[in-house]
């Protein structure tokens, strides 16, 4: 039943809702253009306007049992993977439930197409404007909605709540800048936070920030990082063996998800390492493959040889850096080497997902800027599963230590895996809390007749 709470909405919310309704056609033109650049069909682009491209699953079984539809929303790949970790745990617990996962990027849609389990489908999220949101909710009619990390869309949350949808914020993580922006609009911040029936923060500090923004303290629970429970990244065995064959007896280390301003340090580190092991190979995978030409220029200026994967260039014995400028293959590269430097940490980005590295059996190197995983890296570093470096020189030293001491490397790999397993095990309690708070209890599993 629709619940009208218009009197509870702050004036700034009404202004925002009116503005987004007016700007929706222009916003759609922009986001549709980005999707089109990645080959997304016009029909699927219109999902951003709330027009579904898939039918809603039946709301009841043949015997009349209710089948809840649980909606997860994450911005892009990382958030969608966090959502999948929860969906994978909910599937066996809720045998009658169906799942909908929405996101906003073509890359997340591509990944979900490969990794979605049974009873789950993907759509692009509606723009946060009255028309798209109304069409979306009218079609899908979700029983519960779980928003991942920092997805705080006022119009969507308000409309879903008015339709009787139970709401959760999971894996909550807001940047310091975002928190300050919300604090500057306290009435709207409190209104948004109060829409949620439960809020799961990545760490206690974030939980306190949510309460300061207006969330009810009894609804806020620290949960750890849901990405700890994500399934391991897929590995292309044929591609993996092809690269291994090309390398032969050469050793290799990985620099993954690097950003502008980091490749210089990585290349300098590799150049130093080549003085000790001239046959050593670096596989360099920039976070954004469209920067490949820029990265290639940096390698040339450093006087090193390289092959570019997107161009099909061969990884021959004289190649010092293999530039892996492709999408969707990072799981394959993590399986290639037990030493992985994670980018986004020497530059002020916030770091990237160490769970995927540890799940692949590798040890982790990171810069100091891992604020997006502030609850994960400290215990990982304390256990010895990760090492923090400051620049190219310390990165080279850390890689050299592990290359020259197999026992130390094996201990680091085991420690990384152990930390991730312990954090993943803690997610079972999170699932129990969500099922209870969002009223998702399914019928007891049927027992075989005697």
TrEMBL record:
<keyword id="KW-1003">Cell membrane</keyword>
<feature type="active site" description="Proton acceptor">
    <location>
        <position position="79"/>
    </location>
</feature>
<dbReference type="InterPro" id="IPR039901">
    <property type="entry name" value="Kdotransferase"/>
</dbReference>
<comment type="function">
    <text>Involved in lipopolysaccharide (LPS) biosynthesis. Catalyzes the transfer of 3-deoxy-D-manno-octulosonate (Kdo) residue(s) from CMP-Kdo to lipid IV(A), the tetraacyldisaccharide-1,4'-bisphosphate precursor of lipid A.</text>
</comment>
<keyword id="KW-0472">Membrane</keyword>
<comment type="similarity">
    <text>Belongs to the glycosyltransferase group 1 family. Glycosyltransferase 30 subfamily.</text>
</comment>
<dbReference type="GO" id="GO:0043842">
    <property type="term" value="F:Kdo transferase activity"/>
</dbReference>
<dbReference type="GO" id="GO:0005886">
    <property type="term" value="C:plasma membrane"/>
</dbReference>
<keyword id="KW-0328">Glycosyltransferase</keyword>
<dbReference type="Pfam" id="PF04413">
    <property type="entry name" value="Glycos_transf_N"/>
</dbReference>
<feature type="site" description="Transition state stabilizer">
    <location>
        <position position="227"/>
    </location>
</feature>
<dbReference type="InterPro" id="IPR038107">
    <property type="entry name" value="Glycos_transf_N_sf"/>
</dbReference>
<dbReference type="GO" id="GO:0009245">
    <property type="term" value="P:lipid A biosynthetic process"/>
</dbReference>
<feature type="site" description="Transition state stabilizer">
    <location>
        <position position="149"/>
    </location>
</feature>
<feature type="domain" description="3-deoxy-D-manno-octulosonic-acid transferase N-terminal">
    <location>
        <begin position="44"/>
        <end position="228"/>
    </location>
</feature>
<comment type="pathway">
    <text>Bacterial outer membrane biogenesis; LPS core biosynthesis.</text>
</comment>
<keyword id="KW-0808">Transferase</keyword>
<protein>
    <recommendedName>
        <fullName>3-deoxy-D-manno-octulosonic acid transferase</fullName>
        <ecNumber>2.4.99.12</ecNumber>
    </recommendedName>
</protein>
<dbReference type="InterPro" id="IPR007507">
    <property type="entry name" value="Glycos_transf_N"/>
</dbReference>
<keyword id="KW-0448">Lipopolysaccharide biosynthesis</keyword>
<dbReference type="GO" id="GO:0009244">
    <property type="term" value="P:lipopolysaccharide core region biosynthetic process"/>
</dbReference>
